[in-house]
Amino acid sequence: MGEATCTARQADAVRDLPWYSEMGPFARSLAGLPDTQRLPVHLMVAPGHDRCRRDGAVPHRTPAFETPMSPLLRVEGPLAGGDPVHVPTPGLYLLLRAATLGVAGTAALGCTMAASYLCDPAIGRCLPRDPLITAGAVEELCRKAPAAKGRAVLEEALGAVADRSRSPMETALTVMLALKPAHGGMGLPKPELNAKIELPDELSRAVGGQRSMLVDLYWPDAGAGVEYDSTEFHDNREQAIKDRQRQLASDLLGIDVGPWTSAVVHDERLFSMACARLAERLGLSWHPDDRFTWQRRCLRAVMLGPHRFW
Asked: CB–CB of 64/58 below 8 Å?
């Protein structure tokens, strides 16, 4: 990377790679660009090299790290199309994006990258995938690059980045609850997502042999959780039985799990009331800060809409 530069020729070489055209529809959906507009190519450059934007090529300076490490992945074979290609690790990509996304955008992107799904707006549904990052690994990356542009933004955003989200709604709730009010959030503690709670044998038998249960959003220190009920209008007897069993298990374990429906989450006033009730369960004195109503509404519009985070 010591001599890496950003030129139109290098951008064209990336566009010639075999996977580039295949990813075009997905990338345009994320960026909201029409088919007639050429996608920009983002290239990393070494410190001291020209960073002027040229003909669809966008340069990014490689951050300096205090300890020896490789923030790049070497790609060879058919994907590289010839000479090896070096690409940022997912954690470094998030650090680079933080410089332009701001705290809220970085939190939304980070929580999505740490999730076990891929939301593809080009096909209108989510696909399963392994998480790209963990919050802990990104925190370690920030410590090793204290002078990197975007580091301060990323460190603040990590307060709302939780691992193991399994759905866009879990991501949305995490970001809306845990971001600070100045960035549109409710300023509540960050939850654990899909926490696995083992059930004792006697309790397992009482709930139909279930050995463990998952809680969508969980605050273990307070013994409180939130379950998002996406099937509130579905007439599904089997699911209703499972919900009652899970509620019984929670009650017997002393875990206060509150069900939140789509109607509650999508209504601004009902959501604020639910947050106030959650704050009580967490032992906090809390109320919405009316100085940041606009920021809250902007964040809600983004997080409850199509998840086009990149």
From this structure: no
**Alpha-carbon distance 136 to 69, whole Å?**
16
Residue 170: closest CA among 119, 120, 130: 119
Rg (CA), the chain: 22
In 6-45, at which residue ranges do the beta strands (DSSP E only) sit? 41-45
Other CB atoms within a 10 A radius of the CB of residue 33 amount to 14
In the chain, beta strands by DSSP E: 41-45, 57-61, 72-75, 85-88, 117-120, 125-128, 192-198, 212-219, 224-229, 256-261
Q: Which of 304, 303, 310, 4 is CA-nearest to residue 160?
A: 303
How crowded is residue 230: how many other Cβ atoms within 10 Å of its Cβ?
12
pLDDT along the chain (310 residues), means of 10: 73 86 85 87 77 77 73 78 83 94 97 93 82 96 91 97 96 98 97 90 71 89 91 55 69 83 96 96 92 97 90
